[in-house]
TrEMBL record:
GO terms for molecular function: ATP binding; hydrolase activity; RNA helicase activity. It is found in: Mitochondrion. This is ATP-dependent RNA helicase SUPV3L1, mitochondrial. Its EC number is 3.6.4.13. Its main location: mitochondrion. Keywords: ATP-binding, Helicase, Hydrolase, Mitochondrion, Nucleotide-binding, Transit peptide.
Amino acid sequence: PFFAGEVLKNLNKFYKRKEIQRLGAENGLDARLFHQAFISFRKYIMESSSVSADLHIILNDICCGAGKVCLLGHVDDLFPFFLRHAKQIFPMLDCMDDLRKISDLRLPPNWYPDARAIQRKIIFHAGPTNSGKTHHAIQRFLSAKSGIYCGPLKLLAHEIFQKSNDANVPCDLVTGEERVYANEDARQAPHIACTIEMCSTNTPYEVAVIDEIQMIRDPARGWAWTRALLGLCAEEIHVCGEAAAIDLVTELMYTTGEEVEVRNYKRLTPLTVLDYALESLDNLRPGDCVVCFSKNDIYSVSRQIEARGLECAVIYGSLPPGTKLEQAKKFNDPDDPCKILVATDAIGMGLNLCIKRIIFNSIVKPTINEKGEKEIDSITTSQALQIAGRAGRYGSSFKQGEVTTMHRDDLMQLKEILNEPVPPVKAAGLHPTPEQIEMFAYHLPDATLSNLIDIFVSLSQVDGLYFVCNIDDFKFLADMIQHIPLNLRSRYVFCTAPLNRKEPFVCTTLLKFARQFSRNEPLTFDWLCRHTKWPLAAPKNIKELVHLEAVHDVFDLYLWLSYRFMDMFPDAVLVRDIQKKLDDIIQVGVCNITKLIRASQSAAAPSTAEVISEDFPLSRTKRDTRAVSDRHGAKSTEALSVSVGVAEERRAKNLKAYRSAARQEDLKGHGRGSLANRLLREGLLTQEMLRQLESEWQDQHRNGRYGLGSKRDDQNSSKESGKKKK
């Protein structure tokens, strides 16, 4: 017999042995997995009522022989038992070599044999905003026998689509949600304008244009630029963007054996940074654009402008493309009384605007760091140049552009930011493909999709020219629909759906789409109208306007899925029709935005759900604010309060109200499981939505259907949360 204390001491000695750690690494156990496996192994030995006879003998020999000259056993003898236990809790250890080969991302050029089979000519058009770089690339695109334009936004793809057809060059439009053919018989045209994620790497072209190449470094979407640059089968590849990406593109093309020709462009009109700040909205002039970094500031500034008897157009990221174009048209029209624009950095690309002067309302904005956390920081040089460059567009009524700030304290810092060199783009993004995940699933059939992605990223190997893109949004959706029975390929498609996870209504709709899809029940036009309560009236306040924007995103989601599952989402034509009508309704709301703001402010105090908005990052802590202050001085903290656009006292009150309500909801529990509580805490679900979902789940449970409210799901949720559902 041996004592528990002696066993524990020898187990800890086993854990600390360098030789054991080395053996673990050779068998696929990195430091994190080795630690987790040991904790589980130790718990098994110390708490199990009976261990296997051979392990019992080894432990007895080790403990009885400890301290003697001739040892009966050594702690190293435990390794075979430890490894066997580790393989039980980490099944991938049995196929680690295969998994490492699948997740080896060190040679992305080899993924595109069709592109490697031809010798491509790469032309880099480098220059700042408003330098004509994209214009020259598009001229070559239009003169070619066939071509493809790849841009970051639907608006940009639509602009090239229009420009091509206006020039009698038949061109199709391809986005995630839309296919528009130049030919009436739906025959594919030789030219295509598409969003970059939709480009084909199998179709041969004479010319390809890749716009905004610097976005190859984007932590979420960079993989799409990497795929286009390495994989497009075109005789000529014209890439357009910042000079900061020249070195990386040259290095990437060196690995494919292709040379890069660089053509540099200078700005076509002068841009002047003024020596004075605006300081007051009373000093606005026709052609001014006030740039804000939050919706709250958009609302506040636009109301103050109209209170001065001036009319203003409004553009921000979550507006539908049609509404943005209408607002831009209104601002650009010399006969329209609207001469002022209030916008977010959404104007940085995709819209042609006649702006004389850019005025930064603030120079700090929310950003997402490499860990996926939201922080507040000063805008980068690249962002500042992109936005400032919109002033004085070549060919507009303003022959030169001007840039300044709203507040005097920000002006010196803006000048410093604009004068700093843009840091070079260091690496290109990569993302696991469906085929790679399917191969992982073959080896790990019991793993969830979220776990498969985690394992893939942890085992993936990349060289210094690449990085693996942030997959938090993918994992969020994978966890959200994990309980729904879907095959792996369908599950992967649902998880790549382009949606904003901060919009509860859109996330809830995706959940319903997936559930209905799993039952093989088509999602019809009538079903969608019932879910969205269509037809909808014009908004009476800001809350209703925000909801209409979310409904527009739901229609986008339906259209996106309809091109991937045509039989299950059969009514794309009808949905597109009502989406256009909804766009018109939203336009009416935006044109009357100051009335909506007044109606919202005169209404009752906001509920918990209303307090949580995209403009108030709840993840920002005192540490984040202190970091901004440390880096940029006390003046940046003042700018921070301006950028959020509400009084600090009200912000603190709202945050306190949210935290208090969140604590109350956590205490109530309501037996909804860890995912529901997390969604509530993050503001992704409201109580009203949760009650509606619960009601539906209970109805389905009573009908004997397999849904989120089933017994099986309760058990799954209990395993995740460690708490039994009520």
